[in-house]
Structures are given as structure tokens and as C-alpha cells.
Amino acid sequence: MNIKVVLEYDGSNFAGWQQQAKGRTVEAELKRALREITGKDHLVYAAGRTDAGAHAEGQVANFHTDGRISPRRLMAALNAKLPEDVAVLSAEPVADDFHARYSARWRRYRYRYLDRPARPALDRNRCWHISQTLDVEAMSDASSALVGKHDWTSYCAASEPPDTRVREMRSARVFRRGDFVELELVAEGFLRGLARSIAGALADVGRGVRPPEWVGDVLQARDRRQAPRTAPAGGLTLMEVIY
């Protein structure tokens, strides 16, 4: 039976999603919990490999089981075995050919800035604190250049293969929500470092360091040497995967 699960996690104390030789990861915790429940090792596929320190409210993963444990019971068992900073929100059977990564059409990420003089206490690991007021209108104007199909060389990690760097950005919005400024990005796929590089560029626009058109100029340059600084991982959350 192919099982699809939706997870949320606080990435503050994780070295990212993907299992590594060293460092605590979300994938490793999920595999450990599955092994303790079923007595077997499982291959787990995720919709996105979040960075160290980044979070998820709607990460999707899938794995195959022998079907002896119902999805509802499996969800309860996983939540009993997983650490307190990871939770399974839902579990359901899906078609055998469903793949959390390759079946996904769009992914939605959110980046949060807190632009006030006082540093955050409650949200210290869930936002980027910038002590001056951000120009949300300028950031929104700048983000419009990101929509469409582009070569993201200027904004993604240099380690990404050149032939994979063209991706479609369905929408890019910047708006204020309470004390926070939020950036919402919806794309078919996110290259390594892409969302945080965009967040860093828009922060420079919001602080008045760069004009709005600079974001599009960097994109068109297709030159990683022109890339802005990368925003801190704590402000980034994988919100939803759309199939």
C-alpha cells in the first residue's frame, strides 16, 4: 500500500529534511519511527528537501507498506513515536504510482520578516528580524519580475545542474499581516537556495538599499556572482504542496 502523509515540523533543531551521515534530520526521524512500528526499513520520498533551520506546515511524503496497519492507526502510531517537533497531520492510501516529489504540480513557500525595533521572543526561530520598517509596496513591485518561466541561475545554489535551472514561478506576493511582512512564492519546483535568495533580495529593496527593478535585473543577468545575500532559514516555511 502506498501511503501519503502530510507533516508539519519545527526545523530549528534539524539539519534539514534529507537524511545525512551526520546531523539530525526529519527524514531520519520518520524512517526511525516507521522502523520501530513495522520492524522494517522504508524508502521515504518527500515533496521538498527543506534547508537546515527551515520549517514545514504542509510537507508531503510517501512510502510503501504491506497494508497490515490502516492509515489512521499508522498516523497515530507515528505521532506516538516521532519527537515533539515533528507531527503527522494526515495519512491516506494513494495510487501506487503517486510520488510525493514527481507527482507535485506546485509548491507554496512563505517567508516572514518582522520589521520592528524590538527583537522577537516567541517567533525568534520563525522569522527574520529587521529593525527598520520595510517598504512593502516596493517589495511587491519588485516581486512581479519573478513571475513566469525563468532561468534562476542568479538566485539558486551554484551546485544546481545548469540544465535544471529553468522553472516556472506561478505567483510571488508580498503583503503585511499584523506585525509581519510575508512573502509567498508558488512555483513548480524550488532549486536549492532559491526561496531564501529571493527573500534576501526583496529585503534589500524593502530597506531601500536597492531599487525594485534590481531584482529583475539580477534575474536576467543569470550570474550567481550578482546574487544577493541569502536570508536566514528560520523565516522560511513550506506551506503546501499542490497535486
Series of H and E elements: EHEEHEEEHEEEHHE
Specify the helix fraction band: 10-25%
Largest sheet: 10 strands, mixed
End-to-end distance: 19 Å
Task: Quickly count the helices.
Answer: 5
Which CATH class of the largest domain?
Alpha Beta
**Coarse shape:** globular
CATH superfamily of the largest domain: Pseudouridine synthase I, catalytic domain, C-terminal subdomain
Query: Mean pLDDT, rounded to whole units?
Result: 96
What is the second-level CATH architecture of the largest domain? 2-Layer Sandwich
* Approximate strand percentage: 25-35%
The overall strand count is: 10
Using only CA atoms, what is the Rg? 19 Å
Secondary structure class reads: alpha+beta
How many domains make up the 3D coordinates? Answer: 2
- CATH topology of the largest domain, which one? Alpha-Beta Plaits
As residue ranges, the low-confidence spans are: none
Brief description of this entry?
The chain contains 5 helices and 10 strands.
Keywords:
243 residues, alpha+beta, Alpha-Beta Plaits, 2 domains, ten-stranded mixed beta sheet, 5 helices, 22% helix
What does this structure look like?
This protein has helices at residues 26-38, 71-81, 136-143, 194-206, 213-221, and strands at 2-9, 45-46, 55-64, 86-94, 106-114, 128-129, 148-151, 166-177, 180-187, 236-242. Strands 1, 2, 3, 4, 5, 6, 7, 8, 9 and 10 form a ten-stranded mixed beta sheet that branches. The longest helix has 13 residues, at 26-38. It has 243 residues and is of the alpha+beta class. The two termini are 19 Å apart. The radius of gyration is 19 Å and the shape is globular. The protein folds into two domains: 2-94, Alpha-Beta Plaits; 106-242, Alpha-Beta Plaits (2-Layer Sandwich), CATH 3.30.70.660. Helix content is 22%, strand content 29%. The model has no long low-confidence stretch (mean pLDDT 96). Strand 8 (166-177) and strand 9 (180-187) form a beta hairpin. Helix 1 crosses helix 2 (71-81) and helix 3 (136-143) crosses helix 4. It is built from five helices and ten strands.
